[in-house]
Amino acid sequence: MKFKKYTQISTSVLLVFSIILLILAAAVWSKNIYTGVVYLIIGMIQLICTLLLYPRIGKIKDETEIGNRSVQHNWIVLSIGIAGCALFLAPFFKVDSMAIPYTAFTVCLISLLLSTFNIYKAVKDTKARMVV
Amino acid sequence: MNKKKEWPWKDTFGDYSMVPVPAHERRSFLSIFYVYMGVLACIAVLWGGGTLGLQFTLKEVVIVAIVGSAILAVIGGLTAAIGGFSKCSTYINMRGPFGRIGSQLFGTIIAGVACGIGWFAVQAWLFGIIMHTLLPNIWWANVGVAAIWGGLLMMTTAIIGFRGLAWLSYLAVPFFMLLAGVGAMIGIANAGGFAGLAQIKPKNPVPFGVGVTEVVGMYIAGGVITADISRYSKRVLDGPIAWIVQVIIFQVYMLSGAAALTLATGAANVAQALLVGGAGLGAILMAILGQWTTNDNNLYNGALSFNTWIPIKKKYITLGEGLIGTALAAWFGFYAGASMQVFQNFLTFLGKILPAIGGALVADFYLYRWYKKEPLRQRYQFKPGMKIAQVNWVGWVSVVLATIIGGWVMKSGIAALNVMVLGAVFYIVIAFVCDKCGVKIEIGEHTLDETGV
Fold first, then answer.
1. Which of A41, A79, A91 is the closest to B175 by Cβ?
2. A102: CB partners within 8 A, 6+ apart
3. Nearest-Cα residue of chain B relative to residue A75
4. B286 vs A83: CB contact, 8 Å cut-off?
5. How many domains does chain A fold into?
6. Where are the bilayer-spanning segments (chain A) (predicted)?
7. Residues of chain B predicted below pLDDT 50
8. CB-based contact B182 A92, cutoff 8 Å
């Protein structure tokens, strides 16, 4: 059950990052609506993806199965994180204050790194499948 | 022990390419959906949307995309259900309407030639165009040169194997969803709002049927071979539902997003439009990555089909297939440069020829075997020691007639739909008449061994 605990904690951290993105979306909405929409989409996908993991591992006892499900969800967080990193600093999504795009970029980068580590840990600790 | 008892096969060639997928290897609905989405997430879909953006208004693009996708949903949904019932790949299922030799031949046409060589070459060529767009003044980013090294690069990951392809697909799917959305946003911003975008007239308008044929042709190869994925599903309906959702919702969304971008910027080259629109280098890199992963799959599936009659290690087949595809891509690059005409011709050609095979397969499984009073769940249930026909000539004749008449002789309607319906109609009518007249539709006999050969 050690891995389950780890998964719940790391998922909570990812959840916080997705909420930060949603707050940033609200902050830039009036300045550049397209930037707001992109932050909103990425934040919402990460939020839904992390939220859904809790019930999906809730009653499961088998660690490998928990690992498999963790891998599934972290793949999505990882790939949408890379998309965010690639887009947030693009000219089309520029806003007056560059502090916001850089904050969003950093949040996405940390999510990306954490989800990568989560996949690695699931495969290493629980022998989960990387191909879900 | 029990598993072996229930499952009498031996998977000699790997990936259950010649035998049914056993129960313990079957996957969830979500897994099936991911894999289908991974195939859809490619630059060619955005390119297809860009082509539609030159030919139709935004409203028309959405209608064309919905109609084309609905046709694909029907074709792919029906073939996916066949895979769900039989748990076998398309090329094994095709033993029903075409016989053993026919399944090898037509399987090679669909997956080997159309996907493994045709689509691989077209996408390697598109890769060359993207590189040329990014770095127009550098010799190694020339369309032909970049197609060569891009093709070789894509080939190497296909040779590594299925797991590598899957990982890259997982990364590409959300990328593409977002990229299509960004394309639409840039389009709306450039046109001064959604109302402005909706008013833009296309540069080269074409008839409605041509657009639908292009949409169908773009993904028809995938639509006919849906059983390759759905055979892994736990429930029969998982495959069809996953296919229908991704094609009706996500394909329409991606085509419309790309078309909006082209309409607003006037650039058919989606990569260039994204770059000019300010999506940044990251968006272009995403496009390249998605294209790369999908092309891996093309090569991989093609090699699987060639493997049914070429008894050598799959990686050598992948290598040979990849070299041919890369050479073709380079030829496109040097001969056609960045012209979209090659791409449009290829889509139209696929839209004309492939639906006939799907039509015959669907007619045999759902209609002919129903007429022969074979229970649904007992159709295409192959077993070791079972006798199958070497050739089912009705399938062969139906495909040839449907392709010629529906694809080239008939001048009205949607070519892809004409061909598919004719393929099914010819098959069922000829088989029915032969049955009534006592003429055998099957020639020769072959006994399956435990490896599925």
1. A79
2. A89
3. B170
4. yes
5. 1
6. 12-30, 36-54, 75-93, 99-120
7. 1-3
8. yes
